[in-house]
Amino acid sequence: MRMEIFINDFQTEVLIDDELESLLKQIVSDILDMEGVNRDGEVSITLVDNQEIQDLNKEYRGLDEATDVLAFPVEKGDFSDHPGPVLLGDVIVSTDKASAQAQEYGHSLTRELSFLVAHGLLHLLGYQHEDPKQQKEMEEKSEKILDALNIGRDLSC
What we know:
With about 160 residues, this protein is of the alpha/beta class.
């Protein structure tokens, strides 16, 4: 079984080299393993600029502002009963927002992009953060994966 992970780079501000692309795919793969989603299927990670994510945010959420990450699940629910390949959906990340947040939080762009990809993927898997308990659970799951891959909060990673 194999989940195809696509990285689509539709922005020009951040160089997405083979090493970073491989790391983002590893994060997706590790979260899927952690969550027991060992299936054939597809998931897409798309990197865009602030204007593109603002347009998407306005169209789909009614918010006319740039955000850091959006998640568009295709299939929802318990994937264990699902016949055939699973189309998880799309995670859209603004590299402009990721750059600004990395600077604001005092860590690397790699770390911020990794966190946003993890966060978006958890949304595709059905996690929400409507209350503090849910938010804590999502943050802990994201941090567990990043820690396992030695993606720390310092500027050197």
